[in-house]
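Box 3.1 — From sequence to structure: Alpha 1,4-glycosyltransferase domain-containing protein
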Amino acid sequence: MEDNFNFLSQLLFNWGKSKISFYALISILLLCLLAYNSASIFCTHLPFPARNPPEPASFLPENVTKKSRKFFSLPSSTKMPDSVLYSVKDGILTTKLKTHLPLLHKNQNLVKRTTLYHPKRRKRHRRGVKINLSEAKVNQFEGKVMEFFNASSSDSSCKFRFFMTWISSVESFGNRELFAMESLFKSHPNGCLIIVSNSMESTNGMEILKPFLDKGLKVTAIGPDFDYLFKNTSAQAWYNRLMHGNVNPGEVNLGQNLSNLLRLGLLYRFGGIYLDTDILVLKSFRGLRNVIGAQTIDLDTRNWSRLNNAVMIFDEGHPLLYKFIEEFALTFDGNKWGHNGPYLVSRVVNRISGRPGYNFTVLPPMAFYPVDWSRIGSLFYGPKSLSQSKWLVAKLRQIRSKSYAVHLWNKQSRGFKVEKGSIIQHIMFSSCVFCNSSSLAAL
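Predicted structure (token representation):
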């Protein structure tokens, strides 16, 4: 019994001692907490700089693996501390951005003026790069043309600016085309000729032109730039659709139809004289300005019934040329021969005839087309009889007195041989520049 009493007394003593320690511990904790709170009242918060410097607002984001990043930019007039993080994750501003940029939450106008980077903007930027490259190409084409004309004009040459187009291979540029060039320079020794052709703007092409260059004649070949030539015209949209496969080219050779449009673009941009490569020039075009030639006339009314676009002389930016280009784009039909060429210019001129603002002249068939395509063979044949000989003499005299050029109608006359005593042979002897056996070979 006594032992039990002693044990209980010892237990109470220890419990009392522990109780005192427990209250002491609680008191110490309260004093520490009070000291901490008191110190924080007088403590100034100093933000520590970030270990890695933040990216500036104008920095374009790089591709980040796995997760994409959106970048947030501010107007250049707003100055922010370097420690600000200009990133937005999943469309929600980070806590640090909320802490240091309270203005963004108060001023809604400023928020609206900010710009979020997204993929569409990158695509737009890339398109801008393509436009710049295209403009560089445009400037290169225009620069080549103007450099050629202006450089040549320094020695009083280039009084006449000629254009030809060549849509075939360089190997097919043959005797007929070369003699057409000879006749041009025979009548215009101070003229300049640009052959607009991708195939001729080559080493082989320049080798073909070398004899003319060695003789001091002004000729070169430049590949076309359709984007530049058709810019700000109806043909621009048409050509873009063609390149995207949204235009039916039809059964007629597409190159031929592009040549019909190309010649219009060249004259519209630069002005000058366009000639097909089967045109033999007989005399100077001096005095001709803004003219197009009739191919046929109505025998009863004596008015023209059809025009042709194998020879055209126009000022730069002439409104009739713009109408021609517009008609091509609006009425293109690749299944009808001549629809986008001779018939096109005939339709437009017939429609605008008598309207003010157009200053041009339609020359009679004798100017450029003294013989119709159906009778072109008569110029290649030599005399077979006295009556035929008289006709040849009379016809040659008429052509020399009234015609500026002769259209050979390549499609019909390509297989004809130049016979002795023929009108073509007489023209060749009087129109040659080199006048050697190869120059006077059969066309």
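Summary of the box: Confidence is low (pLDDT under 50) at residues 40-131.
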